[in-house]
Amino acid sequence: MSSVDLRGLEYVLGAAAAQAGKAAHLARGLVLLRELPSDRRLTCTVQLPAPGGQQVFALLPVTVEEIRARLRAEIEAGFVDALVGLDQARDRVDEARGLLRHAEDAA
Fold this sequence. Notes:
The protein is an alpha+beta fold.
């Protein structure tokens, strides 16, 4: 490869930042829930797939602890995705450094 895809690098970094931002936003929700008792029941609206590509909304009673568990899982997944993206970005930066060294040696 004779050039580095800088737009690809920008995309990878942007996606990693978005995942980290989403995880941080969910973490703020988790902090707000700490004030509520774990066994308290809340009604949540969930979006479910339906036949024909339609979406159905349902109201489900869930405990605060169930919501906390779901948020923790999504936060962890978001940070893992962000780390994977940063690893991909590091690979692209290393590739760019290699090309730059090669160009300097050739000059």
